[in-house]
Amino acid sequence: MNYRIVWSSRARRTIQTLVFLAWEKGADSTFLDEPIQAITDLLSRQPRTAGESRGDEERIVFAGVLSVVYEIFESERVVLIYRANVSHG
Q1: Residue 54 has what pLDDT?
Q2: Is the dihedral of CA 35, 37, 40, 42 positive or negative?
Q3: Model-level pTM greater than 0.85?
Q4: Parallel, antiparallel or unpaired: strands 78-86 and 4-7
Q5: Cβ pair 50, 42 in contact under 8 A
Q6: How distant is the alpha carbon of residue 41 from its chain centre?
Q7: SS (H, E, C) the chain
Q8: CB atoms < 10 A from the CB of 59, how many?
């Protein structure tokens, strides 16, 4: 049974801003497509074992340059992604 993945407004805005900035610089604006898909696939199947614990309920998972902080709402089978971050380097 899969989990539904919900990206918070904050996480979506972060992704949109990073893609826009890459596009503005003439860089590959699709650089987050694969990491986003990898994270979505992983968290939809196994959010409890993905990534690392970050306190009581929050967890963090990494895929390439992208990391996201999320929480699992088991009774609703929902994973809420709170924050997204891209590492440069």
Answers
A1: 87
A2: negative
A3: yes
A4: parallel
A5: yes
A6: 10
A7: CCCEEEECHHHHHHHHHHHHHHHHCCCCCCCCHHHHHHHHHHHHHCCCCCCEECCCCEEEEEECCEEEEEEEEHHHCEEEEEEEEECCC
A8: 20
